Sequence to fold (436 residues):
Amino acid sequence: MFSRKKLILIPAVLLILFGGIVMGRWGIQAVSAQSSYEDLRLFTEVMSMIKKNYVDDVKTKDLVTGAIKGMLSSLDPHSGYMTAEQFKEFQADTKGEFGGLGIQIAIKDSVVTVIAPIEDTPAYRAGLKAGDKIMKIAGESTKDMSIHDAVTRMRGPKGKPVTLSIFRDGWKETKDFTIVRDIIKIKSVKSKMIRDDVGYVKLTQFQETTASDLSKALAALHKSGMKSLVLDLRNNPGGLLNAAVEVTEQFLPAKKLVVFIKGRTGEKMEYFTEDEFKTYEQIPIVVLVNQGSASASEIVAGALKDWNRAVVLGVQTFGKGSVQSLVPLTDGSGLRLTTAKYYTPKGTSIQSVGITPDIVVKLEAKEGKESKEVTVVRERDLDRHLKNEKNEPSRNEKGEEKAVYEVDEKDDTQLLRAIDILKTWKVIEHLPKPAA
Fold:
């Protein structure tokens, strides 16, 4: 079994949508192909021409940095270059606390786009919605702006405002949202008892303490009489792979495969459950997912589904099935480079496709009830996304819903359906077994 300690995945929940990230320093290897040297000669020629003839003086470092950013931006949307400051912030974000607005963003149709605002954050309270296009940040156009540059501009000290110019489908023009930055503290586990003996746990992201916090929450629910569980992964954009594995192993026996990753060479790294956590192996579980369930969320849902350990209910997940290597560079900056895809225990790649629920239940707007319509954004909608090796539908074949709805808990048809399933589960369990 591959040691988990060698692989660390960075959360997708911050201001960017990520999958997994392998931490490590890589040696720089020479490219053997002669054509590559010819291309490097062309690069040097262009840089020399700019240095000699451009109207203003340009620093060589700025030209090289710009070229590196251009190289990474030509790859998939999760690869990128980070300055030393960005790289340091990126590593610190795994703690679940950071300064900013509290939104996940990605590049869709060459525009910085909101994937989802994080609950109970300044962006959420200001009314930003999934699908909103960020046209300007503090008056600066986001055209051709990278993810990390956009993040840097939205980050800042607590109490300092920043203005985002937003365009939303159905609007005739952009509107400005002035949002006051705050320290974003993400509580990754929320739990309560609902409907008699049904426990409810919502995981908002996968961070360093998520597995231990979940263990405490489950113990408290068990003490309160929990006999079945709703595990809510909706709008959870992912995070640490270690946390995903440790969460899953609380519901599976030891030595069960949770996920494996595979890179270009075909070499596999497998992650199994261990027996160090108390498991809830027998308790009936319904897992709730939606289009905002990504990365580590899809790992958990996929593993529990493949092992027939839980009923997965909701709508198709986001489809973030790639792994990024986080590579420190000599000047303190770093690369985020997509190097592998991850697969469910049955060997299914969910890249750009997602996890298909066992039971599809969409949130519907109730007649006469006020609800918030939200545009659906998935991995396959992002610019330059990696294709799935098996039967990825084309854009006009997706049949994707144009919008979903945010509703109050009392109108949450997905949650209500999950509770009904768990009640039925208990009834079926107590039916007399047929004679042998």
